[in-house]
Amino acid sequence: MRAVEQFIVRGERYANTKGDLIVSANEEDHRFSNREGEVVALPLGYDGPIAVGDTLLVHHNVFKYYNDMKGRRQSGRSFLKDDLFLVDFDQFYMWRSDGDWQPHGRFCFVKPVPPVESTIFKPLTEEPLMGIMSYPNDYLMAQGIKSGDTVTFRPESEYEFIIDGEKLYRMFDHQITCKIQGS
Predict the structure, then answer these.
(1) Are strands 73-75 and 65-67 parallel, antiparallel or unpaired?
(2) What is the sign, positive or negative, of the torsion defined by CA atoms of 162, 122, 132, 158?
(3) What's the gap between Cα 51 and its chain centre?
(4) pTM of the model
(5) Which domains are delineated in the chain?
(6) Count of helices and strands (H, E) across the chain
(7) 99-134, pLDDT tens digit by residue?
(8) Which helix (H) or strand (E) is 133 found in, with range?
(9) Dihedral pair phi/psi, residue 2, rounded to 5°
(10) Nearest by Cα to 4 from 89, 124, 106
């Protein structure tokens, strides 16, 4: 079975447990929606770099249940059957092949950094609007930004993911505003 324009992925609906402990019973909390799916079928005519067996990092709504206007639990539009879901090209941000993550399209991933030492008191756990580029896309690499560079980004552009146990922000490449010299 193959879809015309979507990847077919297999995945769990929620990632809301740590061992035997349930950390959230709320199905509406996007932070505990599963965001990784294994590719089981490619779109018809697709000849790109993604292969069957690779992992897609997807939007949180792909796997979630939602409640309709009458409060009935429903599957979203991505649901196909059992544990299979359809993923459009605009619903995933990165894929993993042979253990290596690759950004998709105009997306990149930035790791937040601790507050920079200054004379101004900052009661924060992360420096605002600054981070380390973890996964630059082709466009950013053509501009001279590589993995490990310190970058700044626009306000309200952070979309949080936990990837391989590490907190990263997904953002569009046009939201990266500056590469800090010396990085």
Answers:
(1) antiparallel
(2) positive
(3) 18
(4) 0.86
(5) 7-102 (no CATH), 105-179 (2.30.33.40)
(6) 1, 17
(7) 999 999 999 999 999 988 777 777 888 888 999 999
(8) strand 130-135
(9) -140, 145
(10) 89
